[in-house]
Amino acid sequence: MKKMFIKLISFLFMIGALSSSAIAIEKLHFVVPGGAGGGWDGCARGTGEALVKSGLLESASFENMSGGGGGKALSWMIKTMPENTVMVQSTPIVLRSISRHSGYVSDSAASGVLSYKDVTPIAGIIGDYGALAVAADSPFKTFQDVVDAYNANPKSVKMAGGSTRGSMDHLIGALAFQSAGANPNDVVYIPYDGGGAALAGLLSGEGQILSTGFSEALAAGDQVRILGITANERSADAPSVPTLKEQGYDAYFVNWRGFFGPPNMNAADRYEIAKMLGDMQSTPEWEVVRKRNAYVNIYNPGFDFMGFLEKQTEEMTDLMKQLGVI
User: 128-247 belongs to which homologous superfamily?
Assistant: First the structure.
């Protein structure tokens, strides 16, 4: 019965959207829930760049709205319900609602925890592996060197990340250290507001290792040395970067990124933006962005995206319990 209801809703959504196909969105405002230089920022700006250069969109604007581990932007989208505006998000919107992060808890106790269900899922568009990196002049040449230093003195290895404890960056590092036999809750984690600030913390020596997205690590260029990524095989876009798996550490994870609209978003607008994002992935302008960031193309629109989010909530709950985060 539930499946029949979902199919009926999907059908009505498509009919309503197609009947309004004459409506054209020419401008989009991208809200980024974190600071400049992070994975959200790179995905939003790269998407806007490809849409405009390919002619699918007339213009794109961007706004960084950091705070509350992404909760500030989510709350703003819910309260203001802006038109022609999308918010980039990823696995953290699932993680935060599971862990009841304060930035995702509304002022009203009756309202409970804010989540992806409070906004409109439009489409997932890319996958981005996690990466562990060190400063270019670091004595650590491999992840084994980091593990050896940690085993000798756990407090000597501080891990920097672009968001709060329990975030995607924290989870990536926790997985890696757990695969090395360490208790992930014993690893010193230093949270920063965005990937750019986390990189600065690494380069200043506040942290000895950076847990981040693969695309963010690549964007740092020769400032860092990437010790390993959470993929099963090396990326064809960056073949010189090793995986953690090939070094003997079974730490696999791929983080999705996608876009959400405000609650009660017009069905036609939702459909048009989702289609635009799908069309974008076959353009040469997007391939430039994708290759530059070593993104894995996905396209997961509308109700398929919602179903994916529900499934990931279950999987991430189990994983966070396993890691002792919740």
Answer: Periplasmic binding protein-like II (3.40.190.10)
Residue 296: pLDDT above 70?
yes
Angstrom distance (rounded) from CA 4 to CA 11: 10
Residue type, 168: M
Q: What is the fold, at CATH topology level, of the domain defined by 2-126+254-323?
A: D-Maltodextrin-Binding Protein; domain 2 (3.40.190)
Global confidence as pTM: 0.83
pLDDT digits (tens, 9 = 90+) for 213-247: 999 999 999 999 999 999 999 999 999 999 999 99
Radius of gyration of the chain (CA): 20
